[in-house]
Fold each of these.
Amino acid sequence: MSELLKLFGIDLGTTYSCIAYVDETGRPVIVNNSEGTPTTPSVVYFESAQNIVVGQVAKDTAEIEPQKTVQFVKRQIGKVKEVYKLGEKPISPEEVSSHILKKVAQDAEKELGAPVKDVVITCPAYFGDEERNSTKDAGILAGFNVLAIINEPTAAALSYGATLGGAEKVLLVLDLGGGTFDVTILKVGKSIETVCTGGDYNLGGKDWDDSIIRYLKDEFSNQTGCTDDITENLETLQSLRASAEKAKIQLSGKETTTITVQHDGTRARVELSREKFNTLTANLLSQVISLTDDVIRQAQEKGISKFDEIILVGGSCRMPQVMEAVKSKYGMDPKLQDPDAAVAKGAALYAVMKKKGEIDSAPPSESKEPIPSLPPIRYGNGDQLPTITDVTSKTFGVEAVDKQKKPFISNLIMRDTSIPTEVSRTYGTVDPNQPSVSIKIYEHASYDSEMALPKDAESLVIGQTELTLPPNLPAGAPIKITFKLNENGILEIFALDLTGNRSVTATIERKSSLTKAQLDEIKERNKGIMVT
Ligand code: AMP
């Protein structure tokens, strides 16, 4: 019998990351990092061109050398091309994320004595096409075979569903992490079906920390008479950030805490009570509740009018204010479900499911290589694995023109549609003998099937392609456009010139995911680099 293959799930978080694998008994297990903790700060310190430090040491160093550290990179992945400059070299969010992935993988390799190769990486449910591609690219740069990108709430539901003994339940999952908030309604049982999803990727523990930082700044100036904005000093800001997070965490367990603020040789001691903290952050908590209400409303429109349980995941759900607000609003005791680990554990279970699917569907091999044995997965009360259906959190459309030749967005795949999905629609060319059609693809969060071009339309374009047409087509010649969204949320576009049944296929140009050549170049450049 071949050796048991270890398959991994990585929760690549905004503030902390975590890795899990499935052991020989079918249980997902978190692997501690080399510092002995289950989660690793997603902070990267570029000590030198050859030495990159990730994790707690980087987070501590951020106070002393903030200009050499990168934090919260997940908020920028898929959106910008550069988050740091190493000498003259621009460093992308994908590359920074790959260092975080490498660090958690290296530590797990050391602990388990097995290579980390096949992985599933998680992302928020509302990540769009580019963010997903970029997350996958980060995994490729880290040297992984990325089996899949799975939505964080689906992963959490998978690890929770494994404990349910086969019962069918509708879950409301709130995932409030360090930088993102995901709210999802899922049906869990023999299958895991996402009903609808929402959230905000600019809402997380960091914002609660920021509220404390603002308070500390004001208190410092009240106590010392200092009129400077002390947060403009990078070192002071980093130190305030660390103290604010520490104070916030302490306030989850006790009623008051004291914070020392130091700036330019002057210090102040600031008392902060949980009550005051709750007041300072009340607006953030209202956003959590209002985003949750939006998703509940969407679920009602899809015929799901009640849920059986509320599951809280993500480190920030440890704040008592979250528990209390959810309980008082929805009249049900929420369950704090393995908040730091549930997502990575679910991803590890999914890695086994994916690999099993790959092996089962591979053509019979002539090779003498033994087929790797996979760990068993226990799910519910049997070993029947659930089927997983996700929904897209985004709407995808193309630009079309109306009779007055005024452009609008015609949406093909609507938000909250189950994936994989494929939708085709036929459009007509505008002019006779038109040499080509330009296909501009939009991704956004609207539920409307047709919409006027919004002001920020250009920022919603995720790709554009040109379909060359044969000569002498009349105006109105039919062009069939097909959008295909796979279970990883990645979109492919096909365009077909229906006249005379000739077909033309077009591939979408990605705006920000890296090309193979770019990936190879970064891999080559990083060959000699140590990540510790
Ligand atoms: P995650 O991304 O799920 O690891 O969540 C990380 C966030 O949870 C960070 O903003 C942490 O400061 C926050 N966090 C972790 N533990 C606690 C706690 N006990 N109380 C409040 N916030 C916490």
Note: The CA atoms of residues 79 and 279 lie 33 Å apart.
Amino acid sequence: MLIAGPCGAETYEQVMQTAEGIAKNDQIKIFRAGIWKPRTRPNSFEGVGETGLKWLQEVKKTYGLLTTVEVANKEHTELALKYGVDVLWIGARTTVNPFSVQEIADVLKGVDIPVMIKNPVHPDLQLWIGAIERIQQAGIDKMIAIHRGFHDGHTGIYRNHPLWEIPIELKTIFPNLPVICDPSHIGGKRMFLKEIAQKALDLGMQGLMIESHIQPDKALSDAQQQLTPDALHQLLSELTFRKTTTTDAKFNDKLQHLRNIIDELDEEMIQLTRKRIDIIEQIAEYKQDNNVSVFQLERWMEILKSRTQSGIDKKMNKDFIEKLCLLLHEESIRVQTELMSKKEEKNK
Ligand code: PEP
Ligand code: MN
């Protein structure tokens, strides 16, 4: 599923020329344009409002593209429905607010329209799930989640931190919910679009929403991340679109074989972890009998350092090894404190 269009509808000409360019690629079925723009600071371009909805009707009539706009409240939603917008989307700044999402959901009761929900601005999966549930409970059965990255205090080269694990976790909770990626708002600059879009496709995301403007540098919002329709077509032609499955028997046999090995390794890993917990339980008892505290900083520092080095020697990712150590250590502390307090209870 490919969605493209300007960050914001600015003028009739800008909308129509952008749509004309986008329509040259018939893989792109949906034209996006922000009509009401949620801006971080006041006194910047906040969208053209209702007038823009008429331009979108024109886009649909002239170029046969479906249209989508961002709705953030009851009034936006009612107007978008009135003008026959085909798909609605809820933006990152709205997903964070259950009151606003519910207000939109209430307008949508009994309406048959697809709704796309962007992740909330900060990495709170529960808020994303909550917004999806509110719209679902209004009776909307065609929904799509849009991954647009997160603000988490992380300062990297991208405008928003992708935190790919969050959309992946969402997918495990709603296996049938299509998840697409918005590389424009993740990257914040057009030079990053390709690598982010490819990564999303490699992870099995089912589509892309990309901002495109006929004169990107003159855009009234998000100028740096938009690209011309021609550059967009070029970008799409350079991406590798992957299948999630295949019927190729040879491929499936080989894959199954490798998966069997993974299954065995995972089982071994669980057994090893169980053995580790057995020893931790013994340590807990021993420490308690000798009145020694559960947490010993030097021991933990030593574990972290030696395991991380061992992982690095084996060409593993440092971050991953550190996270794994932390997880094991946290569980070890939990097991020990739980055992100790149980025993104290008994002794009372
Ligand atoms: C947008 O799509 O133009 C937009 C405002 O995005 P987000 O809600 O992801 O910030
Ligand atoms: Mn934008």
Note: The pocket of manganese (II) ion (ligand 2) is lined by residues 7, 211, 221-222 (CB under 6 Å).
